[in-house]
Amino acid sequence: MKFHIVEGDDERVHVKSVGPIAPDAPELLAEKLVDLVGPDMYRRRMRLNLEDSEFITSAGIGGLLHCHKRFAEHGGELSLASPSRAVRQTFDLMRLGTVFRID
C-alpha cells in the first residue's frame, strides 16, 4: 500500500494509491495518509485515485470508512476516483457508492 501526492494546495489534495490497499488494521491506512498529507488532512478535500490499486481488503475498506467519517467531522471531504475494475466491483458489491463519491 503506497500513496503519493499528485498535486495539492491548502484546500485540496489529490493522492494516488499504488498497489493493493491491504493495511494490517484500518487505522494504519489513515495513519499513512496523515503522515503523507499532514495533520490538517481532514480539513481539506482529498481525491484518492485508485486506478493503480487492483485489490482492496476489508481492512482497507474499513480504513477508507474511518477516513470518510473523520473528514466529515472536520469539514473536509474524501472522494474516490478511477477505481480499478476489481476495486469497483468490491465497492459495488458493498454499495459503497451510497457512502463515497466515486468518480
Q: How would you characterize the overall build of this protein?
A:
- With 103 residues, the chain is an alpha/beta fold.
- The protein has one domain: STAS domain (Transcription Regulator spoIIAA, 2-Layer Sandwich), CATH 3.30.750.24.
- The protein contains three helices and five strands.
- Strand 1 and strand 2 form a beta hairpin.
- The two termini are 21 Å apart.
Order of strands across the biggest sheet? 1-2-3-4-5
* Uncertain stretches of 5 or more adjacent residues: none
Total strands: the figure is 5
Mean pLDDT over the full residue set: 95
What fold name stands as the CATH topology? Transcription Regulator spoIIAA
Number of helices: 3
Order of helical and strand elements: EEHEHEHE
CATH class: Alpha Beta
Q: Report the oligomer.
A: single chain
Terminus-to-terminus distance: 21 Å
Share of helix among residues? 25-40%
| Principal-axis shape | globular
Strand content: 25-35%
Q: Major sheet: size, sense and barrel closure?
A: 5 strands, mixed
Q: What would you call the structural class?
A: alpha/beta
The CATH H-level homologous superfamily: STAS domain
Number of domains: 1
Topology of helices and strands:
Elements: E1 2-8, E2 12-18, H1 26-37, E3 45-52, H2 58-74, E4 77-81, H3 85-93, E5 101-102
